[in-house]
Amino acid sequence: MVLALAEAEAAATRGEVPVGAVLVDSAGNLAAASGNRVELDHDPTAHAEMLVLRAGAARLGTARLAECDLWVTLEPCAMCAAAVALARLRRLYFAAWDAKGGAVDHGPRIFDQPTTHHRPEVYGGIDERRAVALLRAFFRDKR
Amino acid sequence: MVLALAEAEAAATRGEVPVGAVLVDSAGNLAAASGNRVELDHDPTAHAEMLVLRAGAARLGTARLAECDLWVTLEPCAMCAAAVALARLRRLYFAAWDAKGGAVDHGPRIFDQPTTHHRPEVYGGIDERRAVALLRAFFRDKR
Questions:
Q1: Could you tell me if residue A73 is left (phi over 0), alpha (psi between -120 and 50 degrees) or otherwise beta?
Q2: pLDDT tens-place string over residues B26-39
Q3: DSSP string, chain B
Q4: Nearest chain B residue (CA) to A56
Q5: Cross-chain residue pair A43–B63, CB shorter than 8 Å
Q6: CA-closest candidate to residue A105, choices A82, A76, A83, A85
Q7: Taking CB atoms and an 8 Å cutoff, what residues of chain B touch A39?
Q8: Is B135 helix (H, G, I), strand (E, B) or coil?
Q9: A42 to chain B: which residues are within 8 Å by CB?
Q10: Which residue of A lies nearest to B88 if distances are taken between CA atoms?
Q11: Is A52 helix (H, G, I), strand (E, B) or coil?
């Protein structure tokens, strides 16, 4: 999560919402790391989670990442949670909960849907305070 | 929808689930067209809708596609529906309903969630029979 938080910090310096993500393969090796790049790339889908899923899948040469784990600094939104299910990830670790945009423990609760393709193990609240502090500082400066 | 169906047919010939999508800009011009590329690109997020959102946003130089409309041959899944909301699309037209994986009129019903970022106008069932025939032929041949 330390690396994901560093990616979130780097995203904030680019003017992006400070969210960072890291994909780890079955051997515990780093498969991909990224922060949000929505504004930089002019890409509405360029959330940190999507970028590491895409980069990790390309690197590992498969669209199914069943042995991989995702670490992300914020509860994933519906797009990212559904992508995690499509990729068949093993575990999802996230830091801060997101009552407004989160879709794991809030809103559409993607993994609780009977139609979900897959349910990863989910662990929320890891290093929550650091992630919340980053997000709060970012949105305070924006106002 | 004719062009989206052609993209779906092309996807089937590549061994991909036959879904095609087209993004049209505010002037009615084609901004992007693609079929599914999940297997070809080793990318779990490479649904046709995601690919045209990304390509269209890159082409138009903005992550917000508020004046654009998406045409797709299958009811979007949760990932794609949430991406449509994030991109602030004006209208979503789709062909076949998808009771199993759809997330517009089924499952998490993304645009009906109180936490959705945006609700496009939605029109389902356009050219439904052709899209269903393509999907049925594909899955029949797979068995």
A1: alpha
A2: 899 999 999 999 99
A3: -HHHHHHHHHHHHTTS---EEEEE-TTS-EEEEEE--HHHHT-TT--HHHHHHHHHHHHHT-S--TT-EEEEEE---HHHHHHHHHTT-SEEEEEE--TTT-SSSSTT-GGGSTT-S---EEE--TTHHHHHHHHHHHHHHH-
A4: B43
A5: yes
A6: A76
A7: 63
A8: helix
A9: 57-58, 60-63
A10: A44
A11: helix
Q: Give per-residue pLDDT as tens, B81-126.
A: 999 999 999 999 999 999 999 999 999 999 999 999 899 999 999 9
In this predicted complex, what is the ipTM? 0.95
Q: H/E element holding B139?
A: helix B128-142
Share of chain B above pLDDT 90, in %: 97
Helices (H) and strands (E) in chain A, counts: 5, 5
Structure-token pair, residue A75: 């509860």
Whole-model pTM: value is 0.96
Min distance A124 CA to chain B CA atoms (Å):
20
Contacts of A62 in chain B (CB under 8 A): 42
**A49 in active site:** yes
For tokens 């009977």, the residue is A114
pLDDT of residue B141: 84
